[in-house]
Amino acid sequence: MTLLDTSVPTVTIGAGAPSPEDVVAVARRDAHLLIDPAALEGMAGSRGVIEALAADPQPHYGVSTGFGALATTFIDGDRRRQLQLSLVRSHAAGAGPEVEREVVRALTMLRLSTLLTGRTGARPVVAETYAAMLNAGITPIVHEYGSLGCSGDLAPLAHVALAATGEGPVRDGHGIAMGAANALACAGIEPLVLEEKEGLAVINGTDGMLGQLLLALADLDLMVTTADVTAGMSIEALLGTDAPFAADLQALRPHPGIGASAHNLTRILDGSGIVASHRGPDCTRVQDAYSLRCAPQVGGAVRDTIAHARLVASRELAAAVDNPVVTPDGRVESNGSFHGAPVAYVLDFLAIAVADLASMAERRIDRLLDPARNHGLPPFLAHEVGVDSGLMIAQYTAAGIVSELKRLASPASVDSIPSSAMQEDHVSMGWHAARKLRTSIDGLSRVLGIELLAASRAQALRAPLEPSPATEAAAMLVSQSAGPGPDRFVAPELEAAASAVRDGHVLAAVEHRIGRLSHT
């Protein structure tokens, strides 16, 4: 699959843990889902354990009792369907703006994946209904607020479950808002009637925060390598040197991410006439500023942070998160797997890394615009200094975004607030960590877009010196807007540059020219 591949894949689910790529394909590319028949057989087997407990006159949590602080209340058999539906209705209590379609699809697929482990005790029809909704493009409307990241992402998952029963609002495959009953009928899907334990099975997971982590990792794989490109462009335009990126120097501090980033910079700057122009003995500068010379140290540390987050995500993908769970030997046991701490911590960690990567890029933007530090370029890269302001305010925009990213780097996972009459007295806030990371990644794409514009304009002002093939390929994407000239309406140019970063066009252009760079 190429970076900009637009084909619609098919994903088989239930035969082991799904891959991150499968989740992203379903979330973003509407991949068609097929369920492994063996997984449905496993579900049917564990369902027999739940049905035996349902017939037992002794209370069993989630099967014949209330939930949370009401776990000691026994529910008679003729009221248990109502119990399950009431659970879903009451927990579908989200508020605020509508959550993005890709997030809802990701969390729905991840809940489906857990159902197919057979550890939740749900019937096969529950999994089949979820798969059918995803394949029909039906997206339940989920809201920004409601999850505390403990007992899972309860409210977001409850909105999905409610839609599966034919209640609540959804969007169909064309994005049109309608009632769930209408959408299911149009798609030929029978509304789900939840039996014992199934209300818990469909809402008790970390799927919302995990889905957003997987989407963030896909974005950051692109962003951190694109940051190597924009850093290389700035280093070149500021008459910096590629000498510190030599492999033997990086081997003295053997962090894998740093080595990969330094290797990328060496390749990106290879063949640069601008760099070659000051490589000889006449160059009196001993060392570049940190934002140039230490680009691999920051970019590399971000890569290693991503690697750690990816390891946590892989473990979570292999998990069966529910409470209680049906064990392989037929026991039904309460547990705390729904607590989102493992995912919440890495979401917060990534927000710190994103803020620092953007911060270093902003320092290079400022340097490109400052005549005291940009080695002969006009102030603010303006066409007619005094009449034109050039990219002065674009740097303000970058600085404002970076300031916001620093605020968003404050961890959500250190904040806990008790709920459910103190039964749930410690929560992870992982959903909130995921939501702010999405905002941070958007901000990073905008800062990198501004660096792309500024470095491209500065590079052009170095003519007749020739850029490297790699940086030239990136600059050509914005050459019409980034080229020197009188001031013009700059906001659309900033948006177009950010889109080129976000959509992968910058990286694709560079890799088309020089081959694949090192990714995370």
CATH fold call of the largest domain: Fumarase C, Chain A, domain 2
Cα gyration radius (Å)? 26 Å
**SS element count, helices:** 21
Output mean pLDDT: 93
Structural class: mainly alpha
Strand order of the largest sheet: 4-6-7
Order of helices and strands: EHEHHEHHEEHEEHHHHHHHHEEHHHHHHH
CATH architecture of the largest domain: Up-down Bundle
Helix amount: 40-55%
GO biological process, one term: L-histidine catabolic process
Subcellular location: Cytoplasm
Pathway: Amino-acid degradation; L-histidine degradation into L-glutamate; N-formimidoyl-L-glutamate from L-histidine: step 1/3
GO cellular component, one term: cytoplasm
Give your account of this protein's structure.
The protein has 520 residues and is mostly helical. The protein has two domains: 196 residues, Fumarase/aspartase (N-terminal domain) (Fumarase C, Chain B, domain 1, Orthogonal Bundle); 291 residues, Fumarase C, Chain A, domain 2. Helices cover 55% and strands 5% of the residues. It contains 21 helices and nine strands. The strands form four sheets. The chain has a three-stranded antiparallel sheet. The chain has a two-stranded parallel sheet with strand order 1-2. Helix 14 runs antiparallel to helix 15.
